[in-house]
Design a protein that fits this description.
Layout lengths: L4 E4 L2 H5 L7 E6 L8 E6 L5 E6 L2 E6 L3 E7 L8 E4 L2 H4 L7 E7 L5 E7 L5 H12 L3 E3 L2 H8 L1
Parallel strand pairs: 1-7, 6-10
Antiparallel strand pairs: 2-3, 2-9, 3-4, 4-5, 6-8, 8-9
């Protein structure tokens, strides 16, 4: 069974959107990297997505991906719950959350939530869909339009 992690993010971490090529590991089952860690993802390897930051790195095998979700809220299906403060709910900044459920090399169910920069969701989701064979599920029609125009 998938481990559940309850994450409480400070308002400062939720207030600032990631910029440029940066991606934020919002949280999930990767215990070695602190929640709200900014870094970069590399999607050029045909077998894995690699997240790198000064605080650590991890990889997600494309073939192990079991679910892909995108929207303004962190996905719930993978068992990763995000507790957002009332202040953050009223923030006018648009967030771009990508939630991945996957099985690691040992076959253990894992889940991560990444905040993507504004201009990158379409490219990243397209690569993940093509290499994993899984279709992205969208939180809303607005989220779908943001990615597919």
């Amino acid at each position: 069974m998938l481990r559940r992690h309850w994450l409480a993010l400070a308002p400062a971490a939720l207030a600032a959107a990631v910029r440029g090529d940066q991606v934020m590991y919002v949280g999930g089952t990767i215990g070695e990297i602190p929640e709200a860690t900014e870094g970069y993802i590399e999607t050029t390897d045909p077998d894995t997505i690699l997240f790198m930051s000064p605080k650590g790195s991890f990889h997600v095998p494309y073939k192990g991906i079991t679910s892909v979700e995108y929207g303004q809220k962190a996905g719930r299906r993978v068992g990763v719950a995000i507790v957002i403060t009332v202040w953050a709910l009223f923030s006018k900044k648009r967030k771009h959350f990508l939630t991945l459920g996957y099985k690691d090399a040992k076959g253990v169910a894992q889940g991560i939530v990444l905040e993507l920069p504004k201009g990158r969701p379409k490219a990243i989701i397209t690569i993940i869909e093509a290499r994993s064979g899984k279709k992205c599920e969208y939180e809303s029609e607005e989220a779908r339009k943001h990615v597919h125009g």
